Amino acid sequence: MNIGTLKRKIFKSIKSHDEIVIARHIGPDPDAIASTTALKESIKATFKNKKVYAIGKGISRFKYFGELDKVDEEKLKNPLLIVLDVPNISRIDGIDFKKYKDIIKIDHHPFEDKMGNIEWIDDKASSVCQMIAELIFDTNLKLPKKTAENLFMGIVSDSERFSLSYTSAKTFLLVSKLLEYSKIDIISLYNNLYMRPFSEIRFQGFIATHLNVTENNFAYLKISKEDILEYGVDISTPSNLVNNFNYIKEILAWALVIYDEKNELFKVNIRSRGPIINQVASKYNGGGHPLASGARIKNEADVNNLFAELDEECKKYNENRKI
Ligand SMILES: [Mn+2]
């Protein structure tokens, strides 16, 4: 379907529903939370009488994106479900997927599960927030200030401050429009995104000191509960720091592992600046983008197998470069 037609169809579907539930992936990042809350505020500003719920488990660190909602799915009448930033049904947070008939998916991950009749997949977009900005500028959806702020933060965060490969002319064009139309204060938004306690930087030093680097340029570290306690950080800290190990000469791909006692599994964050990693991650209950993936693994032997496969990907990548 033509992309303009698709965006008009999305707008029409939003217009024709009185109750709208917006969902995203488990373990949300700024793009996931910002896109849901941004779209919610936009729809509410455009259509005053609609009930719109941005749902999924809240994260205290991301409070500045706005309140998340609870919804009693039993009481909804013919609701529209909009799924953002997640390609597979099993990773959608906080809804009973079977309860919805009208479903829209807007996502920038490679396609996995078909969810509904309207699917807008752009795996060349820097972020879902970029796609929501495009949707708003190309339809009659309104742009309240909170929406513009959240979209800006989601784009900045998912593109690693415009440094990752899917940062495009379109990204800059849409960001330019967001600034022009909404007069947002970007310095205060950067404060939200990047202010951190000194303990986090000390912990980053710990990771840098202990990271194992193979001869194939794969780097990995298993982080223990004791390490976390010693530095006074929490178990989500490794995933906040993983992007900081980009652009290191000796490292092509890298993985940080932390054991999540509550859910009894190893959470693995993987990044790459060359070798494709999401296909390997998908074999270990994970997935994501070609150069940014994650996995949730039950037993430690599989963590080691994952490392071995990632190391192999780095080796192949090096061999191909030499030819
Ligand atoms: Mn995203």
Tell me what you see in this structure.
With 323 residues, this protein is an alpha/beta fold. It has two domains: 3-194, inorganic pyrophosphatase (n-terminal core) (Alpha-Beta Complex); 198-322, Diaminopimelate Epimerase, Chain A, domain 1 (Roll). The protein has eleven helices and eleven strands. The strands form two sheets. It has a six-stranded mixed beta sheet with strand order 6-7-8-9-11-10. Strands 2-1-3-4-5 form a five-stranded parallel beta sheet, covered by helices on one side. A hairpin with a 4-residue loop joins strand 8 (253-260) and strand 9. The longest helix is centred in the C-terminal third of the chain and has 23 residues, at 300-322. The relative contact order is 0.10. Bound molecules: manganese (II) ion. Manganese (II) ion is lined by residues 31, 85, 108, 127-128, 158.
What are its keywords?
single chain, 323 residues, alpha/beta, inorganic pyrophosphatase (n-terminal core), Diaminopimelate Epimerase, Chain A, domain 1, six-stranded mixed sheet, five-stranded parallel sheet, 41% helix, 18% strand, binds manganese (II) ion
